[in-house]
Each structure stands twice: as C-alpha cells, then as structure tokens.
Predict the structure.
Amino acid sequence: MTRFQCADCEHQHTTATACPRCRQVRGQVEVCRSHGARHVARCGPCRTLARSQTGL
Ligand SMILES: [Zn+2]
Ligand SMILES: [Zn+2]
C-alpha cells in the first residue's frame, strides 16, 4: 500500500488527499519504500512517483 507523509506534521498515513491528523491538504509526500519520504533523483520508484504526482 502506498504511504504518505505530511510535510506539515511529519505524520505518516495512507490518505492521499489530506493528512488525517492536521487535515493539511497540501504537502502530502509519497513515502518511498527504500529510503522514506525524501525523494532521491536516482531512485527509480521516486521517478515514477514524481511523474505520477506532476501528472505527466
Ligand atoms: Zn499533518
Ligand atoms: Zn525512492
């Protein structure tokens, strides 16, 4: 299951639309399985996530 981390309170959750704790809609970052929420440019999964998030 895809997990997300709130950039506001750093709470990890599975809700893509908003943080269940602080209800922050923006700043929900997908958590990479290999290294966490911080995206790495060389990471394959991160590229896929970034692509899906930008809608390209
Ligand atoms: Zn939050
Ligand atoms: Zn990654």
